[in-house]
Write a structure and sequence with these properties.
Layout lengths: L1 H26 L24 E2 L6 E2 L8 E4 H6 L5 H5 L5 E7 L2 E6 L17 E5 L2 E2 L14 E8 L13 E7 L8 E11 L4 E12 L4 E12 L4 E2 L3 E3 L6 E3 L11 E13 L5 E14 L12 E2 L6 E17 L2 E19 L1 H11 L18 E19 L6 E22 L14 E23 L4 E21 L35 E21 L2 E12 L15 E14 L4 E13 L2 E5 L5 E5 L3 E13 L4 E14 L36 E13 L2 E12 L2 E2 L4 H7 L1 E2 L2 E12 L2 E8 L7 E5 L4 H4 L11 E4 L4 E9 L1
Parallel strand pairs: 6-9, 13-18
Antiparallel strand pairs: 1-2, 3-8, 4-5, 6-7, 8-9, 10-11, 10-41, 11-12, 12-16, 14-15, 16-17, 17-19, 19-20, 20-21, 21-22, 22-23, 23-24, 24-25, 25-26, 26-27, 27-28, 28-31, 29-30, 31-32, 32-33, 33-34, 34-37, 35-36, 37-38, 38-41, 39-40
Length: about 800
């Protein structure tokens, strides 16, 4: 009888596996992103391990959170050979981005993208980025934090305005580090060697030490150094200025593989248990990243080739000091998190493209004169940049036990960002009399102080109506105050569009000697905008059992309004996002299969849109509404104790809701109707940098090899065509980026906490594109000029990269 029962059980199990196999076979016809965040649970080879996240500011199993969350845990990050931003973003299907270079990247979620040019005086980001508990969102671009010794990376798509605030309008990206532990001494290191096709070799060295300091304290020290080989060639070339007829060459800077990157940094974290209820955790993390060259090539010159005529250099240094205090008052958890973040960026940029194309289009060379008043023969421009960015934030929240029938989170938040911006546009030999006072050789100067302040009170409560049904509601009230002051413009020697006169429009300020901070010539910019409001979140969740739930959510997000530095233009208003979402979280067959799905409709009202306007000066306007209809999902299947398949996808239909006609230059109000040539972007235009489909799939197989634990893994990533810009002119001059597929392969062995890994990223050398841009207004720099290659740059994904990693843990 027992034999018959066992045979019947095995037959049922076989049928279940056949059903799941058929499901995955169909799934793998559509490439999906790997979201495997953990390994199999100990003692049950076919059970997928529980993944704990803190997306709702309390520790929860990801499958119990009624929200769409994509998490890459420590195991997944190591298995996917993640080192930097682009390594993990390709495995998060709801996230897209545009980039110029490392740490000069704007990210988007669920298609909420207008293609912002990420200017220092432009809108705040729509996606918040957190390092542990502290926000590190900056306008200059997402920090490319080296991905080592991380606990996990969480992606929270959709408005997160209730718990995370202003810059989490479209979602939040959280980078969570491993914390010190008192359970014993731990240490490890990894050494990697890499080689980029069409480029050069690189290497990575990284390590950590966790040391208990008695029974109640521990320290964790982490360090890394990464060298990425260059793969863009600056080829020999000449250019002739149309006005003077003089010719220049780039012999002094021409070089193969001229864009290598060096990244190094470290982290020190301390954990002290004051008693049973109170713990303090101070952390310091710092990183420096520097590179030369550019990361986009010019198709008009050749694949992975450019013509640059002056040095391009970039150095980005940042540090964050943070403190988290966790305690209990009765049964309630009290959490304080505060941080001070400082970033210093120094850059030198070749601006010869601007000089050549504006001379060709407008004869500008006649106005770039030497001290005698004669036109300069070779008026090459370069930009010296200096950004000094600081941010401090403080949050205090109280959290009730999740076991209470009515449980809640409530808190206060305050943040201030200060950004000193210096952009010095220089021409060698330029007439000092035409320069802003105190800046000889400068043709245009931006010297501004930007301050963005945000304070908020928030709360979110959940009531368990029954054991199966829960209802929750949340609100965040906020106030913001953003200011922009300083100097921008030409010197007093120019009669038009000068930074000294009031000729830039009725809203401009005469150049006044109000202050001398930051060595300003004078002040011609002094603007402030304020606002307040609320965001909301309502959710209903029904749990069928411990493994399956469905939910419905209505949530809103916002982004503060801001200021145009151009005196011709008024401020731009805050924009808001509304999200309607339903979802499924489910585990099947003894939790060997996980299937999660979410469908949503979002409406983005009066969204902020920035672009290069007259004289390539950034303009920010409110555009009409856009709508996003989407579906996203993930699948993970532990098919056997040796084979794991995982994947996910995102489909987004993100489009304008009506014609974009621009904004009134004085009031900033949206122009409601237009036709013909007055249409900036037509109704139903697709929002930029959002492929309709993005996804991937990963398969991993483990086996024994000569006494070692061995594995082989393959990943496939695909996304289809994307628009580069929103405006009709952007589409006309820049085109769109083709869809592309990327295959990654790896294999390795492990024994006694020693591991060896060999991997190949982008095996088939796909020429995928992640951005297209011009250094000035598209109608000028992307124009057809006989004998001059277009100044259109294409940023590719990294060519095929070979890597070998050796690591040990103790």
């Amino acid at each position: 009888m027992n034999v018959d029962l066992e045979a019947a059980r095995m037959l049922r199990a076989g049928r279940r596996r056949a059903m799941v196999g058929a499901l995955l076979a169909g799934t793998m016809l559509s490439p999906l992103p790997a979201l495997a965040a953990g390994a199999a649970a100990e003692g049950d080879a076919n059970t997928i391990a529980e993944v704990v996240v803190t997306a709702q500011k309390r520790s929860e199993n990801i499958q119990d959170v009624p929200a769409s969350i994509q998490a890459l845990g420590a195991v997944a990050l190591e298995r996917l050979n993640v080192n930097q931003f682009q390594d993990y973003i390709k495995y998060t299907p709801s996230v897209t981005f545009q980039t110029l270079a490392p740490s000069q990247t704007s990210i988007y979620m669920r298609g909420v993208s207008s293609g912002d040019n990420a200017n220092h005086s432009g809108p705040l980001p729509s996606v918040g980025v957190y390092l542990d508990e502290q926000p590190i969102t900056t306008i200059g671009g997402v920090l490319d934090v080296h991905a080592y010794d991380l606990e996990r990376i969480e992606v929270l798509p959709g408005p997160q305005g209730t718990l995370y605030g202003a810059s989490s309008q479209a979602g939040t990206l959280r980078i969570i580090t491993n914390k010190p532990t008192t359970d014993g001494f731990h240490a490890g290191y990894d050494l990697q060697g890499t080689y980029v096709d069409h480029g050069e070799a690189g290497y990575i060295a990284e390590g950590f030490v966790n040391q208990p300091l008695g029974e109640k304290a521990a320290v964790r020290l982490v360090g890394w150094y990464e060298r990425d080989g260059g793969f863009i060639d600056n080829t020999p070339a000449t250019r002739t200025f149309p006005t003077s007829g003089a010719t220049i060459d780039n012999a002094a800077v021409a070089k193969k593989n001229f864009n290598p990157t060096d990244t190094f940094g470290g982290r020190a974290a301390l954990k002290v248990d004051l008693d049973e209820n109170w713990t303090i955790s101070p952390t310091i993390i710092a990183q420096e990243q520097k590179y030369k060259g550019v990361f986009g090539y010019q198709p008009s010159v050749g694949f992975l080739q450019v013509n640059r005529f002056q040095p391009d250099r970039f150095k980005d240094r940042w540090a964050q000091a943070a403190l988290t205090i966790n305690g209990k008052i009765g049964k309630y958890d009290l959490v304080y998190s505060g941080g001070y973040f400082k970033r210093r960026v120094d850059s030198t940029t070749d601006y010869t493209d601007y000089s050549i194309f504006y001379d060709a289009a407008y004869g500008s060379g006649a106005y770039w004169q030497d001290a005698s008043g004669a036109p300069l023969a070779t008026p090459q421009q370069s930009i010296t940049g200096r950004d000094r960015f600081s941010k401090q934030s403080h949050e205090l929240r109280i959290v009730s036990p999740s076991s209470d029938r009515l449980h809640f989170i409530a808190g206060l938040f305050w943040e201030q960002q200060d950004h000193w911006i210096l952009q010095n546009y220089q021409i060698a030999g330029f007439n000092p009399a035409l320069s802003p006072t105190g800046y000889p050789g400068t043709i245009w100067l931006t010297n501004q102080q930007r301050v963005d302040k945000d304070k908020a009170a928030f709360g979110q409560a959940t009531f368990d109506v029954t054991e199966q049904l829960s209802l929750s509601a949340g609100v965040r009230t906020y106030k913001y105050r953003n200011s922009l002051a300083g100097f921008y413009g030409f010197g007093a020697g120019y009669n038009e569009l000068t930074g000294y006169s009031s000729g830039m429009g009725a809203n401009s300020v005469n150049c006044q000697f109000l202050t001398t901070y930051h060595d300003l010539p004078c002040v011609n910019l002094n603007k402030v905008v304020t606002g307040s409001g609320e965001t909301y979140r309502f959710n209903g969740t029904y749990k069928f059992d411990r493994d399956r739930l469905v939910y419905a959510t209505y949530s809103t997000g916002y982004r503060p309004g801001g200021l145009n530095r151009n005196g011709l233009l008024g401020p731009y208003a805050a924009d808001k996002l509304k999200n309607y979402e339903i979802g499924l979280k489910s585990a099947w067959f003894d939790r060997s299969l996980i299937v999660n799905l979410a469908a949503y409709y979002e409406k983005w009202n009066a969204f902020q849109f920035s672009f290069l306007g007259l004289n390539s000066l950034t303009v920010v306007q409110n555009a009409p509404a856009a709508t996003i209809k989407g579906v996203e999902g993930s699948v993970e299947w532990r098919a056997t104790s040796d084979l794991t398949l995982s994947g996910g996808f995102a489909y987004n239909n993100a489009r304008l809701a009506r014609n974009f006609c621009g904004a009134d230059p004085d009031t900033g109000d949206i122009i409601p109707t237009c036709s013909g040539a007055d249409i900036v972007a037509p109704d139903k235009a697709r929002l930029p940098y959002t492929p309709p489909f993005k996804g991937n799939v990963t398969a991993r197989y483990t086996f024994e090899l000569m006494g070692w634990n061995a594995h082989a893994q393959g990943s496939f990533v695909y996304q289809n065509r994307t628009q580069v810009g929103l405006r009709t002119s952007d589409v006309e001059f820049l085109g769109s980026m083709p869809g592309y597929a990327v295959t990654d392969l790896s294999a390795g062995i492990e024994k006694d906490r020693t591991s060896v890994e060999v991997y190949v990223k982008n095996v088939f050398n796909s020429h995928g594109q992640v951005n297209r841009y011009t250094p000035c207004t598209v109608e000028v720099c992307a124009a057809d000029v006989p004998g001059i290659p277009k100044a259109v740059y294409v940023v590719p994904i990294q060519p095929m990269t070979l890597g070998v990693r050796f690591g040990q843990k103790f």
